[in-house]
Amino acid sequence: MTPSADDFLSQMAWYRLLYAEAQARVLADVYESHHAKGELVAQSGEYVHSWMGVVEGLVKIQAVQRDGRVVGFTGVPAGSWFGEGSVIRQDVRRYEVAAMRASRILHLPRATFRWLLDVSLDFNHFIIDHLNERLAQHMSLVEIDRVLDPDMRLARVISNLFNAVLYPKLGPFIPISQEEFGDLAGLSRQRTNSAIKNLEKAGLVKVVYGGICVDDIDGLRRHIRGGD
What is the pTM assigned to this prediction? Predict the structure, then answer.
């Protein structure tokens, strides 16, 4: 069943921290956009108007290099929010956001976001935690870009999705297809399939219908550290 904006917000930790009047303003101000697979949700160089949450679907944050090469940074699954840094900086967007599948996005206008920072200490703490996790993730993504081994690239991408702050709705089961994992890791379909099989043989992941399952994330992270 498709959740309403009210239902979606009621599941968000930051929204539950707000007092009733602040929740009412958020609910009154948010708006939605819908995007087909492959469509840009946000373009690089445009002024940032909102903080965005993925209600349904999956989006990818990426950058297009001068030579036309597309560099993927990370995927953002349903139940997650992104773009807080750009909203705070009052800056133009330095990356683009593309829908990896049909996606429904909830937008919190920048004015409302800034107002919440002014009136809610709890919201400030939430955003600070978000920014800290985003910085750590960015450092990890830089490492991924330097890794040539397909198995290790994929393992790092999977590991990065296990972040309770940035991706609170993900558990042991990750509803992302092998094709989408390959897109996030910058691997061909053939190399992605081979890497997943190798990780499965090592007992680190399990391929299931609709995605993969990771029962031992600590074991996967030890595997990554051992490959560094």
Answer: 0.87
Alpha-carbon gap, residue 95 to 64, rounded angstroms: 8
CB atoms within 10 A of CB 158: 25
CA separation for the pair 155, 153 (Å, rounded): 6
User: Which tokens sit at 27?
Assistant: 């609910």
Domains present along the chain, CATH in parentheses: 5-138 (2.60.120.10), 147-227 (1.10.10.10)
3-state secondary structure of 203: coil
Amino acid, res. 221: R
Rounded Cα distance between 192 and 182, Å, is 5
Tens of pLDDT along 110-169? 999 999 999 999 999 999 999 998 887 776 666 666 666 888 888 888 888 888 889 988
